[in-house]
Design brief:
Radius of gyration: 16 Å
Strand content: 25-35%
Number of domains: 1
Distance between the termini: 44 Å
Structural class: alpha+beta
Largest sheet: 12 strands, antiparallel, barrel
């Protein structure tokens, strides 16, 4: 474990990660968009990391959910251990040369891996890459992400897209929560022996999926 990026040692033990968005009171009451904050927990509900999105009010108002952002992820001591960077890019199958990309750093300043959106006319598809931009895993979402009172699963697959090794799930958390606060609750299930750097990239993938498919939705209602 001494070769792991500092702060990621705990991910080495996890095969399930929960991401819960915290909603500010002003945003819940007035619908005013504020910078997103997240708690990242283990399967027991214990907080492992805390994440804060950084961007400008201009980006949130005019570019959401396409906005660029930097999400800083800190451990329980306040030390930043992961940084997620999303540039402003297109979110349309009409522009396949300028689709979504995400860079994940751990420690900050050192590349851990990338998330790259793949063009497909029907399904949400992404490729997880390591720090050398070598393809590692595929992520394939459902044709419809509305949920309809149920969880929405994005399957984590081997590169041949035939073998499923895990999933990223958007949890449906009830009518009141979705309509009035629209919070994000995600779960990541991956093999426990997956490289911790790739696990960090999977956390970044949750943030990208949230903004692309659920930011302005009612999550199935």
């Amino acid at each position: 474990t001494h070769n792991l990026p500092p702060g990621l040692e705990y991910l080495n033990q996890l095969d399930q990660i929960i991401i819960h968005q915290q909603v500010e009171l002003l945003e819940a009451i007035l619908g005013t968009e504020t910078s997103s904050k997240y708690e990242i927990k283990n399967h027991l509900g214990q907080r492992v990391y805390f994440a804060v999105e950084e961007n400008g009010c201009f980006d949130r108002k005019l570019c959401s959910p396409l906005r660029s952002f930097t999400i800083r992820i800190a451990d329980n001591t306040g030390r930043e251990v992961i940084r997620v960077i999303r540039p402003l890019r297109c979110n349309s199958c009409c522009f396949p040369c300028f689709l979504q990309q995400l860079e994940v750093q751990s420690p900050p300043g050192t590349i851990a891996g990338y998330v790259v959106q793949n063009w497909d006319p029907f399904l949400p598809k992404f490729t997880i890459q390591n720090q050398s931009k070598e393809d590692v895993l595929k992520i394939i979402g459902p044709y419809a992400t509305c949920g309809c009172f149920d969880d929405v699963d994005f399957e984590v697959k081997a590169l041949n897209e035939m073998t499923t090794i895990g999933k990223i799930s958007k949890y449906w958390s009830g009518f009141v929560n979705n309509v009035f606060t629209n919070t994000a609750n995600f779960g990541i299930q991956v093999p426990v022996d997956l490289d911790v750097r790739i696990k960090a990239v999977m956390i970044g993938t949750c943030f990208l999926i949230d903004l692309m498919f659920f930011e302005n939705s009612l999550d199935g209602l």
